[in-house]
Specification:
28% strand; 4 helices; alpha+beta; Alpha-D-Glucose-1,6-Bisphosphate, Chain A, domain 4; 172 residues
């Protein structure tokens, strides 16, 4: 992994990272922490497998997840997964969501030349590949990372908006 980071910095490529600060109305750190943890539980099939680290005192939860990736029937060499890290830093009345370390990994039978590794902001022209499939996949991977991040941001905001709308004094 260190070699990838060195190669990226030498060639001017930056790993894709998406960040958003989400404000919460008059909710303290413990409530935000619990609500973020609830979001992980409701958003992933196995939150225990996704959450890699959590520290309630420092207000941070770090998870590692993956998204399926398929290009199309003619260029299926790059089919596999995009792994990513989601870091949520929790403060009083707000938290910061950072989604980073997007990495393309193949399926069990993916040839090594089709595994593109760390996804950066590099233009597709810089990607080596087989008959343009890797270049096409690279463009779609970059777009998938952005769409995935926006979807996560929206999901978290909706969960917190729904919590704010519910009556905390209800006696269900």
């Amino acid at each position: 992994m260190l070699i990838m980071a060195v190669n990226c910095s030498l060639s001017g490529q930056t790993p894709l990272t998406f960040t958003k600060i989400i404000k919460t109305d008059s909710v303290g750190i413990p409530a935000n922490f619990n609500n973020v943890k609830d979001w992980f539980i409701s958003s992933y099939n196995n939150a225990k497998a996704v959450i890699q680290s959590e520290d309630k005192t420092d207000g941070i939860i770090i998870g590692k997840a993956k998204e399926k990736f398929f290009l199309d029937i003619w260029c299926n060499c790059t089919d596999g997964f995009i792994d990513y890290i989601i870091k949520i830093h929790i403060k009083e009345n707000r938290f910061k969501v950072e989604i980073c370390n997007f990495t393309h990994i193949g399926q069990y039978d993916t040839p090594a030349m089709c595994i593109l590794g760390l996804i950066t902001d590099a233009p597709a022209e810089t990607i080596n590949g087989n008959m343009g499939c890797n270049k096409k996949a690279w463009i779609k991977m970059q777009a998938t990372c952005k769409t995935l991040s926006e979807s996560i941001f929206t999901s978290i905001e909706q969960q917190f908006n729904n919590l704010l709308k519910s009556d905390p004094n209800s006696n269900w």
